[in-house]
Amino acid sequence: MDQIDRALIAQLQRDATQSYAALGQSVGLSAGAVHERVRKLRERGAIRATTVDVDPKALGLGVLSYVMVDSNAWMGDTAAAFAALPEVQEAHVIAGAASVLLKVRTPTTEQLQDVLRRIYDISGVSGTQAIVVLETFFERPIAVG
Amino acid sequence: MDQIDRALIAQLQRDATQSYAALGQSVGLSAGAVHERVRKLRERGAIRATTVDVDPKALGLGVLSYVMVDSNAWMGDTAAAFAALPEVQEAHVIAGAASVLLKVRTPTTEQLQDVLRRIYDISGVSGTQAIVVLETFFERPIAVG
DNA sequence: GTCATAACCTGATGTCATTCGGTAGAAATT
DNA sequence: AATTTCTACCGAATGACATCAGGTTATGAC
């Protein structure tokens, strides 16, 4: 993982549709060499997947919120329970007052309420605190440096 | 944006490297028809970009945290100030006690402390509360339904 | 200095993206 | 109802590109 690999990752984050020849141009290598480097980055898991970035609004998911989940039990093995809720985009175990932090996308705040109800149904959950996003400044890829 | 478009988006989220012929197989259309549909999804902005999903650990960014920023002024036009901090991956204006919520990735907790220091330097910021993630259950694409 | 390994380049091959002409169905107009 | 218009689709053709292989240079170990 040298400076060229980082440059390649940065380029691919910006636009993963560009050709290996174009990538080679921007880092000063041949298409073949770039192909081999990217293949290894995928193999090692540094590049997990090639995906598309979708506009949530286009899917009718206009409401973004973060939910702090309080619990009265060990939450270390409840990943599947949260994953079963399709509105939950991220789930993290956190240090501090609450024990789990969720990123939730719903069409409306009414549907958020319904998600909160389903969260309460999960074993060990004792309470929730929802933080509704009013405006997203930005969501961007990880900075590669 | 019909059911076929949603299926295409779901497929592309899973793997954007597959051929249009393969995509056509999974939705029952020809490669040409799929090509045209995807082109329009990009044009409309439903598909914002094609990118790679990078493992933060591979870039040495092992610490994920969320930072609640308290303020004593209107924070509606401070997007650029937060965007200037490369460790900040997301920034949202939120309803509730704090006024901005940040998603921050750093190599270490010491570097998180340094980011907090730089956040304090932003005009209008009166305080911060950092929530450190102990374990990420999952981070996944938006559910297309 | 020599050997071994890894990274690279160039060129060849097959696959695929992209485009085009034509067709069928749906919707709007007369 | 007939006609027109528009949209989505298919199948084929073309050119670009991913992918692979053979040979070469650079890198590092002994």
UniProtKB/TrEMBL annotation, chains A, B:
Keyword Magnesium: no
Protein name: DNA-binding transcriptional regulator, Lrp family
Pfam families: AsnC_trans_reg (PF01037), HTH_AsnC-type (PF13404)
GO CC, any one term: cytosol
Record domain HTH asnC-type: where: 1-62
One of the protein's GO biological processes: response to amino acid
Keywords: DNA-binding, Transcription, Transcription regulation
SMART domains, sorted: HTH_ASNC
Listed GO MF terms: sequence-specific DNA binding
Alphabetical list of Gene3D superfamilies matching this protein: 3.30.70.920, Winged helix-like DNA-binding domain superfamily/Winged helix DNA-binding domain
Protein source organism: Streptosporangium subroseum
